[in-house]
Amino acid sequence: MTSQVISMGAHIADALGWPFTSVPPGQRLEFMEQIKFTVAGTAAAPAVNLAKLGVEVGAVGRIGNDTIGDFVRSTMNSYGVNTDNLVVDARRQTSASLLPIRRDGSRPALHVIGANAGLTETDVPWSIVEKAQIFHLGGAFILPGLDGAPMGRVLKRVKELGLTVTMDFLMSPRDDAQRVIGPSLRYVDYLMPNIEEAGWLVGTEDRQEIIEWLHTQGVGHTLLTMGGGGVSVAANGDKETVLPAYDISVVDTTGCGDAFSAGLISGLLDGLDVMGAAERGLACGSLVATGLGSDAGIVDRNQVAKFQQTQARLAA
């Protein structure tokens, strides 16, 4: 099956609970209003949302030989994602996270890397990739078998095949961050981290310094998601434009960046310029924030377009 987009990287199952207030002491019980299981991760969640938006998308990653992996595959299939290239790792469990969601939508995360640790450049299905238009790499910094030089080699070959490269990563502060991601950035056309992660990578909270550093590394466009602050969009060498956020009631911020990625990618496939594609991405991320989990909010492309036309925006 030919896919317009290949989404490679982190495939995770999330268990979310809402609302989280505190960990009860000892053996005591606290009640929540909702517990939900979803497909997540910076490769899997964009793939699901792309399928909702009518894009033909193929997933590339690793899952375990377990019930969690069965859930990830079957759920992605149910949305129309091609999962033929999800490799079953017999030695590792499927990656998973526990996410206690606070009432303001923020959350800590407890994570098992699991099968994502086994993903390597040998898992890339080049005969499928060469027929696609966009290659999305999601999960740098939590893909130890691919991070660093191997990821750079993969993206270099992808660019030689003529594809557009998009990237998002998933990180906590680490001293070797620039060395890990450095070999890849020159091959990235659209980089879409959140502003906090981008600051950890560059080593500053100054947005202009972050943008300048990423552009110096060769990134074609930076798209920094900033929650209620909107999205910063800048082509390499140009000044940024900040798109204002939508005025929504936030339930859960899980997966908002992944939804932004999907919206932007679908916009690029439709021939929109970077601003138009980023506007669609912003709408998709905002819709996901209105519900619990990475799969919330987005129904289809028409719903997203209507949201863009009718939903109020915050002040820039």
How is this structure best summarized?
The chain has helices spanning 44-52, 67-79, 126-129, 149-160, 177-185, 195-202, 207-216, 256-269, 274-289, 301-310, and strands at residues 5-9, 12-18, 34-40, 57-64, 82-89, 96-100, 110-112, 134-140, 164-169, 190-191, 221-225, 231-235, 241-243. It is of the alpha/beta class.
Topology:
Layout lengths: L4 E5 L2 E7 L15 E7 L3 H9 L4 E8 L2 H13 L2 E8 L6 E5 L9 E3 L13 H4 L4 E7 L8 H12 L3 E6 L7 H9 L4 E2 L3 H8 L4 H10 L4 E5 L5 E5 L5 E3 L12 H14 L4 H16 L11 H10 L6
Parallel strand pairs: 1-4, 1-8, 2-6, 4-5, 8-9, 9-10, 10-11
Antiparallel strand pairs: 2-3, 6-7, 11-12, 12-13
Helix pairs in contact: 1-8, 4-5, 6-7, 8-9, 9-10
Task: Characterize the structure shown.
It is a single chain. The chain is of the alpha/beta class. The protein is built from ten helices and 13 strands. The strands form two sheets. Strands 5-4-1-8-9-10-11-12-13 form a nine-stranded mixed beta sheet, sandwiched between helices. A four-stranded mixed beta sheet has the order 3-2-6-7. A hairpin with a 5-residue loop joins strand 11 (221-225) and strand 12 (231-235). Helix 9 (274-289) crosses helix 10 (301-310). The longest helix is centred in the C-terminal third of the chain and has 16 residues, at 274-289. The protein is globular.
